[in-house]
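Researcher: We're teaching a course module on how sequence relates to structure. For the next exercise, students receive a sequence and then see the predicted structure as C-alpha cells, so they can try to spot secondary structure elements on their own. Here is the exercise chain.
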Amino acid sequence: MIETFTAAVTREAEAAANDRHGDAAMMARASFGLSRVLLSELAHRTGGVVGRRVALLVGSGGNGGDALWAGAFLARRGVAVTAVLLVPERAHPAGLAALRRAGGRVVEQATDADLAVDLVVDGIVGLSARGSLRDAAAAVVARVHAPIVSVDLPSGVDPDSGAVDGPAVRAAVTVTFGSLEPVHLLAAGECGRVVLVDMPFPLGGSRLGALEPADVAALWPVPGPTDDKYTQGVVGVLAGSAAYPGAAVLCTGAAVAATSGMVRYAGTGRDAVLARFPEVVATLDVADAGRVQAWAAGPGLGTGAEALGVLRHVLAQDVSVLLDADAITVVAQHRELLERAAPVLLTPHAGEFARLTGAVPGPDRVGSVRAAAAELGVSILLKGRTTIVADPDGQVLVHASASSWVSTAGAGDLLSGLVGALLAAGVDPLHAGAAGALVHARAGELAAVHGGVGAPVSASPVLEHLRAAIRSVRASA
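Model: And here is the predicted structure for the students to work with:
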C-alpha cells in the first residue's frame, strides 16, 4: 500500500535524520537524487544533456537549497543553469556558492530569455508553506512555458489537503524525499508524475494512503477448493423503481461481475434484472429476499415512505450495508437509522454529502470526509476524480483516477454493486470502497479505449468491462 504522511510528520522525521546524519549530508543526498531526475527528464524530452538550458526558481530555505545544489550537479554535466532568486536575501548560501563554482548564472530579475529553457525547477516553497503563490512568484511562474519539475510539491498547493486556492505551479514531475505527503495523492493534476527519492527518515503512523493493484488483487475474493456459493458471499441489492428501472440492472450487474457467490435482488426491477442476469435470485418484496451477508441499497430507489420502510428493514439486519443515492437522501432525514452495530458505508457525491452533513466538502476534502465519518459513526466514500474513503476511526484511503471516464449517469450504481459484493465477501468498508473505486475507474478506462481513444463512455460499456478490469488488476499486481 502507498502510505502518506502529513507535512508535520515528515518535517519531524527529516529533523531527526538531519540530527543523526548532518544537514549537509542529507541535502547532498536529496539534491543528488533530484539532479538524477532532472538529467533523465532532459534526456527524455530533448534527446541530450550537454548544452541544454535549465532555470531554477529559487525560494528561501532548504527547498531552494535543494534546487541550487541540483543545479550545481547539472552545470558540471554541461547544462546551462540559471538560478532566479525570488527572495535573494534568504537564498541558501552553500547551495548558491556551489552553483556559482560550477559555472551557473544567478539573477534576481528573470528576463524572458532566462525563462526560455528546456526545463524549469520549482524550488519556490517547501512542505512548511501554506497558501497560494505570492504575487512576485506567481508573475514569474505565469511566464514559464517549459515543463516544470517541482521540489517536494508544486508551490502554492497545500501539502496536507491538496487544495489550490490561488496561483500555483502545475508540474510535469514532482520529486519528493523520504516519504509521500497527502498532496501527492490528492492533487495528481498539479503534481504530475511523482518520483520518491529514498531518504533515511524514521516514519510511522500513516493515516492516509492508497491501494496499489497488488493490494486489490490480494483482497479480491477468489474461490478456494472448499468454497460454495454461500461462503463466497451473498450480496443483496435493493435498487431501482418504476421511474428508474435501469438502476436495478446496473447495480445488480456490477455485483454479478464482481464474482459474488450469489446475488439476491429485491424490488420492482425484478423482471428487468432477470431478463439480463438470469443467475440472480430475484423477488419483488425485500421481506422475501432471503439471507445475505451485505446489502447494497439506494440507487433509483425513491425517497418516499416505501423507500424508508425497506431501508428500515435492511438496516435492522446484522450485516454490512452500503447506502447510495436515494438511500442517502432518506437517512439524511432519518439519522437514527445509522445507529447500528454492523458496518455502514455511505457513498455520496458532493451534493449528497451536503444533504447528509449540511455543507459541501471544503477545499480540504479529506478533512471534510474524515470529520463526517467520525460524527456519524460510519464509513464514507466521497465520489470524485479523487475518491476518498474514510472510516469512523480516521483512517483514509484515496484513489486518484487518471481520467473522469466514470463521471457519467449510472456509473455510481455500478460502484454500489461492486463494493456491495466485496462487503458480502467479508472485506471491511474502508478497503472495499478503495478497491472498488480502483476497479471501477479501470473499467471506465478500458471502456473508453475499446470505444476509441478519447471516446466518451456510458455506464453500460463500463459494466461490460468490469470483469476485464478485475483481470487487469490481477495481471498488473
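Model: If you want an answer key for the exercise: The longest strand covers residues 53-58. The chain has a mean pLDDT of 94.
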